[in-house]
Amino acid sequence: MQAFRTDETGGSSMAGSPITPELFAFLKALRRNNRRDWFEKNRQRYIDDVRDPLCRFVEAVGPALRKLHPGVVADSRPNGGSLFRIHRDTRFSKDKTPYKTHAALRFPCAPKDRPSPGFYLRLEPGSVMVATGIWHPENDVLKKLREAIDADPRGWARARKGGLDEVPMFKRPPRGFDDSHPFLDDLKRKSFTRRVGFSEKQACAKDFPAAFVKTCRSFGPLIAFLDEAVR
Asked: What is the rounded CA–CA span in Å between residue 158 and residue 144?
């Protein structure tokens, strides 16, 4: 296991990032061979190049993320923690390929017993994304978000500074809100997210854990507003 330390900015840095080109190489191979027999033959490669390095990444950034938001859950267990399962849920999908061809980590701002925003890392060949926010909230959570925006438009203006992702929207304004509302488009949103892209080379650089934490820090006003709104 590689050593990590906290730098002077409060971010995490490592003596060599746990994310390597081998992670992307495995995912590329999986994309070409998305079958159970192939995966079973290459299971140890998945563990060595994808699962365990990402668990070490969680250990590296967890303390710094908790400084950004004390409720952040950074769980480095290989099963049931911050790492998403590689297996796809194919029960209601026409696509029956058994495995995801990307790897991802989630760092919610609260335990699973309540809705919350969080930080997110997704890695796939040719695309690396760091994101925050709440994606497709349930109706009761969506109602709380709309009410919070309406009650504190100045706070929302500060929180959304820097922009939000382009996402699907409802065609009509939600009932009970005026058509002239200054944030009418935001009230019609189905998700409240922001993302920043990185290259494979950047993700494999030794300073990527610190870059990840720095990006999460830039999301601070947005995640604070969303978390307070859905409590």
From this structure: 18
Question: What are the angstrom distances between the C-alpha of 147 and each of 78, 113, 179?
Answer: 38, 22, 15
Q: Which of 146, 226, 155 is nearest to 194 (CA)?
A: 226
Q: What is the DSSP letter of 1?
A: -
Kindly state the average pLDDT of the residues 49-72.
96
- At the second CATH level, the architecture of 4-230 is 2-Layer Sandwich (3.30)
Give the max Cα distance, the chain: 60
**173-193 tens-digit pLDDT:** 898 898 889 999 999 999 999
**pLDDT tens, residue by residue, 105-114:** 999 998 877 8
| Chain position carrying tokens 């690396």 | 128
Please work out, in degrees rounded to the nearest 5, the angle formed at the alpha carbon of residue 43 by the alpha carbons of 197 and 205. Answer: 30
> C-alpha 78: how far from its chain's center?
17
Task: Return the domain boundaries, the chain.
Answer: 4-230
Q: What is residue 111's predicted lDDT score, i.e. its pLDDT?
A: 82
Distance in angstroms (rounded) separating the CA atoms of residues 213 and 228:
21
Q: Are 156 and 225 in contact (CB under 8 A)?
A: yes
Q: Measured at the alpha carbon of residue 208, what is the angle toward residues 191 and 136, in degrees to the nearest 5?
A: 10
Q: How many residues does the chain have?
A: 231
